[in-house]
Every structure is written in structure tokens, then in C-alpha cells.
Structure of F-box domain-containing protein:
Amino acid sequence: MLRSPMSPAPREPEQPPAHIVVLPTELLLMTFDFVYFDGLTACDSSSCTICIGFPGETTHMVWQPTQDLTSPSLFPYSLSSVCSRWRNIMSTVPKFWTRLVFFVDSEPRNVQSYFAYSGDLPISVTVTRKFKNRPDYGPFEGKRAKMVMAALRPHIHRCESLSFDVKYSSSLPSLRHDFVGEAPLLTKLILECKEDDGGPTGLLSTHGYHDQSEKFICSALTELTVDGRNFLEVTKDGAGCGWRENFPGIVRLSIIRLSDHYPDEGLSIHKTLDILRSQRMPNLFYLRMSDVRFASSTMLFGLQAPIYDLAPTVLELEDLQGNVVDYLSRLTTIPNLDSMFLTRCIIDCVHLPDCWSVTLDDINPHPYDPMEHFDYAGAFDASFSTWGGGSLDFVNSSSFSDSFLLMISSPLHGLPGSFGCPNVQEIHIVDCMNFTVGALKNMVAARNEALGDRQADVEDDANAPVIVELNVTGRGPPLSAEDAEWFKVKVALFHWDIIQVQ
């Protein structure tokens, strides 16, 4: 029948409103999978237990190491928090839950569930604070960290990496008591804190214990960051519970945070060096000691002090008290050392190893005190007078001064043609205000005379005393156009970019 123009049009059947909650499960899984792969990168670790035997080949994908673990959009936690349906769907895919992150500045949620979601797959676990600059919450951080560790213990055999980054040392698990069994996949273990508040030591620990005859075996371990209290426990006679057997494979080691509450019962520098020696750690490439206080009773020089041979290529010493740097230099030989970083340490009358480069960050000698009859600046200069390395970096350090420049431009031991720091060819200066352009010019001119006052380049004799590279950046004295042209003629690689401080 023909419809009259005046008759109403037939009504379309009503469609339910489009909404994300009605998306089919298959489509949601495809979306989640896309987000998951977006957070991965190709494995490039030389110590990966999965890639071993396939040098130069990528065999699997890993979580991007540069991702911010405190980000509200971190996968899978942001998506699984949208609704219970999304979480139930995501919980059926174990690979989504192989990166587990727990925050201890609030009550950790779903701890047991997250471990269960990952099935039997290898996992990476991080325990940290979401808001690291907020005030602490008393003892709750430690209780929450202990809760996570208790849930983790049955899954330690699946861990590829485990990281605790908390405020207090007392919140960290104990190396001797909280780790047990085998962890064949574990390559990285981080036990890091911001403050040493005593921590669990010996039988006073509030952590759970296991049979001391049962060792913790992690033969694949290559990277270890350990707080001072835990390292102190490892150094004790008869202690270790298998840890010393794990040391040979370690490539990177950091020992951080140990106060001097009990200086005569604390960490022995000799026992520390005994563990660090190359016979125990032959593969050690990087060694860092930061904010560690050694027992004062072990800081006395003995007439028959042993010499410890260490293996690292890179050595970083930071916030070490008193004459520790000098003591370490006297007690050790480090034949493979290439780079040394010194931050906020005392460098007075120290015999530095002849590595290629030394970086001095915030190194400021004490001013001369007539009452003590000791010239600290002169002692610092003397520490470098015979140093045989080739590259010096000064960062925010008043130790880079006119007196230092005079030392490296003057004949060494009065011998013509010799200089303090005889082999240095590269100097990099950042944020240093305690020198003048005139003294820097005099130094360059004096050392250039050894080559007939000509510009040297990188092809010249490696033993030539001339400065080949000079970089001055950040804060510092102004440079005139005339002086800039002079340096460009005398120095092959010259760069000056100074911020004028009003």
C-alpha cells in the first residue's frame, strides 16, 4: 500500500547506547595486548639467563627500564582499576603481570592476587614509595615491606629482578634471614634506602627466619645494591648463608648507607676489602661505596697491612668520611681501573691510582688554618702531583684553583720538562669559580713549550704533556674574545660556555 505523505515514518528499532563496558571480551584482550607490547623493548642484557647462548641475538622482549613505575598510567594497574570486568579479564593473561610494583607509603593492595595472576612466568618485583618526598608514616613502611616480602618468598625462584627502594634501612629484608632456597633467574637485587636507622642486625631482626643451614643460591646474580647493615652482616665471621658463594658472578656492586652509631662494632674496612678482592669477585666491573662509615678501630694503619687486589674498571666513592679514600688507596691495587669518581670526599695527601680519568664532584679542600699549620689546598695539589692519568673532570669544586693550575704547570721535582699530572691531556671544568683565566693560560702555555709551543692534536705522542682538550662550562670566570682566540690556537679541542653569575 502507498503511504500517505502525511502518515508518520516507521520508527527505527531502538539501539542500546554505545559504551565501553559492552565491548566484547575478544576486542578488549586485543586492546590490552596492544598496550602491553607498547611497554616492552628488546632485551639487550649480556647477563640475561634467557638470552645466554645466543650472543648478539634478541630472543625475547622485556619491560622498558626507563618507565616511571609511579606513573598513574602504568600497565597493567591503570587498566585493571577501571572496573571489575576489566580486571577479571586481565587476570587471565599471566604475561600482563610479570612486572609487579608495590608501594609501601600506603597499604599494598592485592599482593597475593598479583603473584597468582603471573602464573609460573618469570617476574620482576619492585617495592618502593609512590610519593618519595612526603613525610614518613612511622613504623608502617617496615610492616608493609615485610608483608610484601612474605608474599614474595614462595615465588623467589621466579624472580629475574628484585628491588627494594625505601626510606629506612629497617624496612629492608635481611640478606641472611629473609632469602632462602634457589633463585636461578635472579640477575639483579637492589636493597636500597635513603636513611640508616639501624636496620635489622643479627637476632634482633623483626623479619622471619629460616634454618641457617639452608643457603640462598642465586648463581646468575650480576648486579647487587646492598645497604650497609646487610653488607655488615655478610662480613661477619661464619655468616653469609651462601652469599659469598654467589659473589663470583657479580658485575656491578653498590654498598650504600651505613651510619656510625656503633663505630667500634661496625663495618671493618679489612673485612670489606677481603670480600671485594678479585679472588672472590673476579668479574666485578663497577664498584660504588656511598655514605658508608667504617668502624674507627679498623681505620688505623698497620705496619704489616695486607694489600688487596681488586678487579673493577670503574670505581665510585661518595660521601666517605675522614681519610677513607687515603686508606683505600694504600690498601688496594686495582690494575684494571679506568675511571674513578670521587664525590664529597676528603682528598688530602692521597696517592691516587693511575687510571685514565678521575672525576671530582663537590671536592672542596678546607681553607688553610694557621693554627693547625696545615695547608689543605696544598695537600690536595700534592695528591695529584704524580698522578699519571690522562683526563681530569672537576664539577662544582673549589679544588680546581690557581694553585692547582700552578702545580700542573711547574716542573715536577725540579726536573725541566716535567710537570705535575705529567700525562694529563684532557681537562673538563663544570661550575667551578675558584680559578682565573690568567692561571689557566699560563698552564696551557707552560705545557705547550714541551712541544715547541705548538698546538697538539689527538695524533701526537700519548705521553706529551700538552693539553689537547679543554672544556669549561656552567658557572665560571668570563672569557674575553682575545683570550678565546688564544685558546683556540693553543688547544686542539677547546670549548668555553660560561653562565655569568651576577
User: Anything to note?
Assistant: The first strand starts at residue 40 and ends at 42. Residues 25-38 form the longest helix (14 residues). The chain is about 20% helix and 20% strand. The two ends are 93 Å apart (CA to CA).
